[in-house]
Give the backbone structure.
Amino acid sequence: MSKIKLLFILICTVNICLSAEIKKPNILVIVTDDQGYADLSAYDHSAPDVKTPNMDRLAKRGILYTNAYSVAPVCSPSRAGWTTGRHPINWDPKAGFNCGLPKSIKTMAEMFKANGYKTARIGKSDYSNKVHRQDIREYPLNHGYDEFLGFCAHGFDNFLLTKEIEKKTPDPRGHSAALGELFHNRSKKSYNEGYLTQIFTDEAIDYLKRNQENPFFLTLSYNLVHHLIHQAPKKYLDKFGVKEIPNYDPSMGSYNKWFTQYITLGKISDVDMRKYYLANLNCLDDHIGRVLDTLTDLELADNTIIFFFSDNGGPPTNGANNKPLSGSKFTLWEGGIRIPFIYCAPGMKKAGTISDQVISALDVLPSSLMHAGIDIPKDLEGEALGDESQARNLFWQFNNSYAVRSGKWKLTKTAVSSRQPTSGVIDRRQDANKLGLYNLEDDPGESKDLSQSHPEIKQRLEKLYQSWFKERAKDRNHKRKVNKK
């Protein structure tokens, strides 16, 4: 064999080895909907009636965070935040339900697609009150996803998923009270049987099987444990001892009217609401287990980065448990924004540990880019996870409510939900719109306002918030001027 041919073979062999060695990691983001802070059994503070063996299994492979925060206390802005790595106040002064996704800001899906990744979103897609539409920026295929199966709304029926029921129902397309066919890429798809969580999991498993040779970014966005919480497969209802409530039928009239009677206490008692919640949480955990099993079976687990978190805190009336935190979804009390969060990367030195590091869902994007070897944009507000020594300030804006956390201190002024909360939620309705200062290390439930005894800290946090708010307003005005030119 000639020296030239031998050298060529050697170069090819080295290139093959290098290619295998630098294979891009897969990214899987699992988002749950309205999961309570105490509703993951791997936590020391978990509720005694909770068992989540598959979520716990994931926690054993990664880091479980006790001080992880959503970007907002409701779904749309919280999701817009983590997928862009920026707080929605950068384009929406209220950072509210209608925040949307601006065309000027790249999403996580767009960034990974541009770097050779296959991208898919399965489940809930919710960025504004522009719902049930494919012709807007917020539709997944219009902001970087190659594939999509799911719905574009705040909530959806778990069982009624056909074109037929959609045609017969007077009001099939509300913001939360919606039913009928699911979006499937650029068309729609009916399901005559099945449960949304099972359908989303089946689709995710199929996607993993089809893309096991490609680097992928998959968002698996479950709609559990969002209302309608009484809807669950019968075997789970039986397990927790609650009755099966008949599904909606068009002969009953308005779907919204039927839906609304089950999302507050009344027809369902406090005790039973918790049981329905646990039934759905158990169902969700089982299906997450199916996804983890598939990753193992396909030998993808050792090259897949997984983020698991809830979009916001547990709401006042779905039966969630946020204790020892106060408040719920819709509020900037800790119960509305501190969330279950697991970060799992193969070969982690601290796998199986619980961390009290203060982190944000904004950190998902820069951390994923870091693992993929993709340049992290300098204007991202999140941080790549890993440096636990780095102190940071976190800020929230939601309509006219705001909060700032700096170290152990938090300044909070928040509106509250008017709904009577279930027993897993500490009621703070009496403190609506009161500005308070709290030491979260000593008082995670925000029960003792320390404004009077620490006026200098209150003033410092107020200045931090005002500076943050004004800087974002300045940036918004600058971008508007640039866009007009």
